[in-house]
Structures are given as structure tokens and as C-alpha cells.
Design brief:
This protein has six helices and eight strands; from the N terminus they run H-E-E-E-E-H-E-H-E-H-E-H-E-H. With 178 residues, the chain is of the alpha/beta class. Strand 1 and strand 2 form a beta hairpin. The two termini are 31 Å apart.
């Protein structure tokens, strides 16, 4: 169950995920825990809501298979839909065929990494691009930002920091400099 729904369940709401996991049925009961404004009519004791949830999609473009798989699994555990690419060509192909990708995590040391950023900026201009590189390749990070990446992180990655950047973007705060 996504983190938001877990928080709602903790507030005393009865949540029943549907089979396809893209919608969730929430049963709200009028009691001391719910806000009266949710139930404007005196006779409304129970309300059934169906909320369509859009799972954020993340492309992990990383040439090292172990790093790619590990990062992808951690992101899936957070509730994201993750697609993987082991090279720049596969990444561009994923971006071409999946216009719902919100976040791109790109290895800035794989051959032709600039093609990922160019393609994302032209086809998915609202996407968030986060570069990943070793300390010795900082020039690639600066080039990536010049081409349109919002930020870059130094490997080995701290997953909490990666997730923090993603959450900032999803909440509309990714443009804040730290």
C-alpha cells in the first residue's frame, strides 16, 4: 500500500485497495476522528469514495546491473513504478514509448548519456532529471545541468537523498537550491 494510504489508514479510515492498484476505495465513517465538513448532510453516515491514484514513474538508466537493480528495487518498495535501462539507447527507447515517466535517474558516465537528457528535454519537458556519477566525473554533472538536468548526485548513492530529491520534485519543490 502506498505511503499516503498508510497514513490515511492510520487516521482511522477504512481503506480497501482494488485489484488493479490504480484506484483505491476508501470508506469514511462519521465519528470523532473525521472532520464534520466531509459529511454535509445529517443523514450521511457512510460515504464511499474512489480515488484514482497515479503512481509516479521513474526511469533508472544505469550501466552497472547491480546498481541499477538495487536502486530500482528500493524505489519499487517506496511505491514507484520503475522502468530500467542498461544503456543510453534503451533509456531513449523507454522515454519514447512511455510518456508517463516523471523522474529520470541517469548514469552520467555511460556512453552517449547526453542523448538521454536531450531526448527527455524535448519529449518530456516537465520530467525531473537527476544525474548520478563518481566524484572523478564532476565535469559531466556540470554538463548535465547545462543540458537541462536539475541536479546530480555523487556515487555511491545515499538512497534517502535520492528519495528526498524525488519527493521534492513530486511536491513541486525541486527547484529550491540546497
Amino acid at each position: 500500500m502506498p505511503k499516503l494510504l498508510e497514513r490515511l489508514a492510520g487516521d482511522g479510515l477504512n481503506i480497501a485497495p482494488m485489484e488493479n492498484q490504480r484506484s483505491t476505495t476508501i470508506y469514511l465513517r462519521r465519528n470523532a476522528k473525521t472532520q464534520p465538513k466531509l459529511f454535509p448532510n445529517a443523514g450521511m453516515d457512510d460515504v464511499r469514495l474512489t480515488i484514482q491514484t497515479v503512481t509516479p514513474a521513474i526511469l533508472v538508466a544505469e550501466r552497472e546491473a547491480t546498481s541499477r537493480t538495487s536502486l530500482s528495487e528500493l524505489l519499487r518498495e517506496e511505491g514507484y513504478r520503475v522502468v530500467e535501462a542498461g544503456d543510453s539507447s534503451a533509456a531513449v527507447n523507454q522515454l519514447t514509448h512511455d510518456s508517463n515517466i516523471n523522474v529520470i535517474l541517469a548514469d552520467l558516465e555511460m556512453p552517449s548519456w547526453t542523448s538521454i537528457i536531450h531526448h527527455a528535454r524535448s519529449q518530456l519537458p516537465e520530467s525531473f532529471i537527476l544525474g548520478m556519477l563518481r566524484y572523478g566525473a564532476l565535469a559531466n554533472g556540470l554538463e548535465a545541468q547545462r543540458l537541462g538536468a536539475q541536479a546530480y548526485l555523487i556515487k555511491p548513492l545515499d538512497f534517502a537523498e535520492v528519495n528526498q530529491w524525488i519527493q521534492r520534485y513530486l511536491k513541486g519543490l525541486a527547484r529550491i537550491k540546497i
